[in-house]
Write a structure and sequence with these properties.
Strands 1, 2, 3, 4, 5, 6, 7 and 8 form an 8-stranded mixed beta sheet that branches. The chain is an alpha/beta fold. It has 5 helices and 8 strands. The protein is globular. The longest helix is centred in the N-terminal third of the chain and has 9 residues. The structure holds 5'-O-(N-(L-cysteinyl)-sulfamoyl)adenosine.
Length: 182
């Protein structure tokens, strides 16, 4: 039992951890293993804001806009390196859970996660995840729900939802004059 599983059983939250030998290290790996939408995977991303760690829970379909996180955190943020992420949460990247951290870390949550009935988050290891409703996720992580994504990510305009969506560049990477602009 890892420290997160110990936290879960002590919490009495009744959450079941599922292990996937094929690995759930990245959001794409986790979505493939679980057989859910990428957007249902919760990325627990560790940042440093004014020297203090903060965690952002992002839908797997979205990229985090660091300026937005900085605005809600009250000071500019930068990505924590692997050691800082581990020091703050007690877990290694690829398995950082959304709550049950080693220290009191403020948590911010991507509003888009509320659009799913159930989501899946890392359970302390790169091969384990658990299913939870976004409302319960918000409660247990004591998260502030806010808009954190790079605008233009994940939501396909009507009529474009399927055709060619795999080729769509994410907004920050969209090139002027790409084949997509008509
Ligand atoms: N288990 C999966 C799905 S729940 C998971 O933990 N995904 S994750 O997105 O929350 O964690 C991987 C993230 O860690 C990457 O998106 C990236 O933002 C971050 N990361 C990966 N490598 C590094 C690194 N060397 N230093 C800092 N951050 C990193």
């Amino acid at each position: 039992m890892n420290r997160f599983e110990a936290w879960l059983s002590a919490s009495g939250a009744g959450i079941m951890v599922k292990e996937f030998p094929e690995g759930t290290r990245t959001a794409a790996d986790a979505a493939r293993a679980v057989g859910c939408e990428l957007g249902q995977i919760v990325k627990s991303l560790v940042f440093v804001a004014g020297g203090k760690p903060v965690v952002a829970l992002m839908s797997g379909a979205n990229r985090l806009d660091e300026r937005r996180l900085g605005r809600v955190a009250g000071t500019p943020v930068e990505k924590a390196d692997a050691e800082a992420a581990r020091a703050a949460t007690g877990f290694s990247i690829g398995g950082v859970p959304p709550f049950g951290h080693a220290s009191e870390v403020p948590v911010f949550m991507d509003r888009d996660l509320l659009g799913y009935e159930e989501v899946w988050a890392a359970a302390g290891r790169p091969d384990s995840v658990f299913e939870i409703s976004p409302g319960r996720l918000r409660e247990l992580s004591n998260a502030t729900v806010t808009d954190l994504k790079v605008e233009g990510d994940s939501v396909s305009p009507p009529g474009r939802a399927l055709a060619g969506s795999a080729d769509l560049p994410t907004s920050g990477e969209a090139k002027r004059g790409s084949h997509l602009s008509r």
